[in-house]
Design a protein that fits this description.
It is a single chain. The chain has a 5-stranded mixed beta sheet, with no helix packed on it. It has a 3-stranded antiparallel beta sheet with strand order 2-3-4, with no helix packed on it. It is an alpha+beta fold. A hairpin with a 2-residue loop joins strand 2 and strand 3. It has a domain of about 110 residues. Helix content is about 30%, strand content about 20%. It is built from 4 helices and 8 strands; from the N terminus they run βββββαααβββα.
């Protein structure tokens, strides 16, 4: 059996129903019944709009209580990085280069589920025929990107002669 790492779950992007398919606002993606190869391509206008919103955000008033959230210094540091240093295009290219991504929908199998579930998933095969399939499913909020660093490690380990 081929080793499979399927990092499977809902895309962190809100999906909207459109006819009998799903579409994702600001992302060139569709969800259909058959799995389709997918590469993240976020609309550049949306990226710039997001950068502008972050640039114009104001640090919250921090009252000295940690449960109120980060203080102005942390907020300003993150804001400065996001506005002036973070490169979404490089991040997008890295994700598309390292991850074999797909989209599909899963039809509901229970009566109280009204709509199909849109899935954005990653699927990698091992070169070993005796490898054990592995399935990773994340919750919300979350993404397979949180554990994407293990895909290469598992792939390299699967190539070792045991």
């Amino acid at each position: 059996m081929l080793f499979t790492l399927l990092a499977l779950g809902l895309s962190p992007i809100l999906c909207a129903a459109a006819a009998d398919k799903f579409s994702v606002p600001n992302v060139d993606a569709t969800f259909d019944k058959s799995p389709e190869p997918f590469e993240i391509r976020v609309d550049p206008g949306f990226i710039e709009e997001t950068r502008q919103r972050v640039a114009h955000a104001r640090a919250p008033v921090f009252m000295g209580i940690e449960s109120d959230g980060p203080g102005a210094e942390i907020f300003n540091t993150v804001q400065e990085y996001r506005v002036n240093e973070f490169d979404w295009n490089a991040t997008e290219a890295t994700i598309n280069q390292k991850l074999e991504q797909f989209t599909t929908i899963v039809e509901p199998v229970i009566d109280n589920a009204t709509y199909p579930v849109p899935l954005h998933f990653v699927h990698h095969h091992s070169p070993r025929k005796d490898a054990i399939p592995l399935l990773f499913i994340h919750g919300w909020p979350g993404s397979f990107l949180e554990v994407s660093h293990i895909i290469d490690l598992l792939y390299r380990l699967s190539r070792l002669q045991l």
